[in-house]
Amino acid sequence: MSTDNNADTRQVVTGKQTMTPSEAFVETLVANGVTDMFGIMGSAFMDAMDIFAPAGIRLIPVVHEQGAAHMADGYARVSGRHGTVIGQNGPGISNAVTGIAAAYWAHTPVVIVTPETGTTGIGLGGFQECHQLPMFQEFTKYQGHVTHPSRMAEYTGRCFDRAMSEMGPTQLNIPRDYFYGEIECEIPEPARLDRGPGGNKTLNEAAELLANAKFPVIVSGGGVVMADGVDACQALAERLGAPVVNSYQHNDSFPASHPLWCGPLGYQGSKAGMKLIAQADVVVALGTRLGPFGTLPQHGLDYWPKDAKIIQIDADHKMLGLVKKIAVGICGDAKDAAEAITERLASRDLVCDATKAKRADQIASEKDAWERELDEWTHEKDPFSLDAIDEAQGETPFSGGEYLHPRQVLRELEKAMPEDAMVSTDIGNINAVAHSYLRFEKPRSFFAPMSFGNCGYAFPTMIGAKVA
């Protein structure tokens, strides 16, 4: 049986069949295309583990279960498919909470399988017993608890379906004694939503706002990457002549070589992008929830346009208008919505058509000024930077010119990066500063811990990305 994601020839049993709950669990994993899982082997799921390999599923072992969750996150973000985590009940599962929280804020479809203390011992304070549903409640979109062995395939399939439809982690909680026995069940076929572009009414309202906009700006978010919608975003930007900024830690949501790209917003973001969006009268928030940390004042600039009308497009209706007051909210797929709006604008005369050339010059000017500032890193005045300035510019550098300031390192790394590089950063100031330097041409190539902001993210996430 192949474990090649692009050549999955595995067959799934059809119709009602007699099998063990472990077989029902594994068959449902196969039905959902699972070829790789991350975790640490434990006695709680040993029966199912015995048939992973024959079913074409590889368990990739880790040192710590937090790393397994980050690996699943990276795997899902590169492949566009589920990332799957499993571990021993109790401490193995509790170790994964931080990694699942990071995946939650990245809207990543990770399924964590949490074998639980056996039903005959629940509540007795036995070995490795804990309440495993409450600890993940805040960081999952759905929690499936298998209530009877005969429902194993049902709950397993639902967790995989919900991870995709709800765009985030789900938890499959299984009492360890429910892997055993004999049941009759049918393996459910995966159900995937066809979201579409949104409603005609709101799409028309968005097109009307943009047709009359003088200085439209697009914020391209993670939803654009998840929808494979970068080309659609680019087409909309080109029709409008609109500058495009990346939402916080989604630097791969628009090609950096494009003349309309203006860099990321948020902490340690692009001054060029901030100065341009400050002038916007209409903002298209495409596939982004406009999180607070990604729109906060920065570099002494309170740049968010207070009077701009916001068109927000998100596949999750609960995000619409959650952080910023919006004029139009579109619940739909970012790619489909961008294409639908571009189509509505294709044959219309737009107010902003008259200023395309002028705005292009302004975009280029602001970007040039920001690039010069990034080159002239000597504006840093902390003691370490003053030493580094003396090292770089002094008459007698103490190392002979061998040492570099971190900003110099980032600039050189940016120049050396191949076009198809994938980069993962941890959290902290130097990682945030890196967002201003590292440039990306392709989606699914930049990974950061998002709003949960935990350390220990970068390395395991890149392992999962590499597996994918």
How large a portion of the residues is in β-strands, by DSSP E? 5-15%
Strand order of the largest sheet: 3-2-4-5-7-6
The top level CATH class name of the largest domain: Alpha Beta
Q: Main β-sheet: number of strands, strand sense, barrel status? A: 6 strands, parallel
CATH superfamily of the largest domain: TPP-binding domain
- Give me the number of helical elements: 16
State the shape: globular
Question: Which CATH architecture of the largest domain is right?
Answer: 3-Layer(aba) Sandwich
Note the gap between the termini: 18 Å
CATH-defined topology of the largest domain: Rossmann fold
Mean pLDDT: 93
Overall tally of structural domains: 2
Domain Thiamine pyrophosphate enzyme central: 203-340
EC number: 2.3.3.15
Cofactor: Mg(2+); thiamine diphosphate
GO molecular function: acetolactate synthase activity; flavin adenine dinucleotide binding; magnesium ion binding; sulfoacetaldehyde acetyltransferase activity; thiamine pyrophosphate binding
Structure characterization notes:
- It is a single chain.
- This protein has 468 residues and is of the alpha/beta class.
- The chain folds into two domains: 17-185, Thiamin diphosphate (ThDP)-binding fold, Pyr/PP domains (Rossmann fold, 3-Layer(aba) Sandwich), CATH 3.40.50.970; 200-373, Rossmann fold (3-Layer(aba) Sandwich), CATH 3.40.50.1220.
- The protein is built from 16 helices and 16 strands.
- A six-stranded parallel sheet has the order 3-2-4-5-7-6, with helices on both faces. Strands 11-10-9-12-13-14 form a six-stranded parallel sheet, with helices on both faces.
- β6 (142-145), α6 (152-165) and β7 (170-175) form a beta-alpha-beta unit.
- α10 runs antiparallel to α12 (356-375) and α14 (406-416) crosses α15.
- The longest helix has 20 residues, at 356-375.
- The radius of gyration is 25 Å and the shape is globular.
